[in-house]
Amino acid sequence: MSRPLDIALIQTRTPATADAALAHVEPLIREAAAGGARFILTPEGTNLLEQRRDRRGLAITDEDQDVAVTGLRRLAAELGVWLLIGSAIVRSGHPADDRAANRSLLIDAHGTITGRYDKLHVFDVDLPNGETYRESASIRPGDAAGLTQTPWGLLGMTVCYDLRFPHLFRQLARAGACMISVPAAFTVPTGQAHWETLLRARAIETGCFVLAPAQGGPHEDGRRTWGRSTVVGPWGEVIAHVDHDAPCVLHAQLDMAAVEKARASIPQLLHDRDFAPPR
């Protein structure tokens, strides 16, 4: 019988600059590694959370110049752990589009980036409480799904709002993913109403482990995020969760055999059928 995979989700309250963000998250990652985690995941916006456009423009750099990204690569190599930077807000690299990328980065135990995924779905909404979000104004959406090999199986990569698009998760699972990451910075109203329900639904639909590290609490740019980082098993059971929005480390153990067990019990990934669209 294979050894369970020790993971840790890092819940953060990321500051508005990459230097401060690295100083904030590094001790939490060290704590996770000291506790035995071999795979550590951080939330969306790990390198900075800044929605004020004038300050945001000054804070964003290229991926290979970002202080938090380069610092976390060195840290993964030092600790000998795999690390998912849930996302970094960096320049997209597209000369015709000055919007940033919201980019998830998988780093191996040598500090090498082995997987990249740019968030596909951007969040534009006017909430009943008066909050307005226009992620499309500053984030260039990606155009490809993210599926990357790890020592424990294939990892499907998503970011935050992607959680509301089940077809993405299904395609990742049908392509072989056994784990799907959902780093997030959910708003409080949407998090309170939908966060756990959606995470459990995506796990049940795919037979995957769903790993959801989150931002939590009041941030420097005025937003407030829900927290409640969560690990869901492939049968839809909550394996571990945080019941608050403060920065912390959440440990969990994953029995990877549970994926095949869930999928054998309900082989839904084999039963898709083509059908005519509604009229």
UniProtKB/TrEMBL annotation:
Molecular function terms, GO-annotated: hydrolase activity, acting on carbon-nitrogen (but not peptide) bonds, in linear amides
Alphabetical keyword list: Hydrolase
Tell me where in this chain the CN hydrolase domain is found: 5-256
The superkingdom listed in its UniProt entry is Bacteria
Family that this chain belongs to: Belongs to the carbon-nitrogen hydrolase superfamily. NIT1/NIT2 family.
* Name of this chain's protein: Putative amidohydrolase
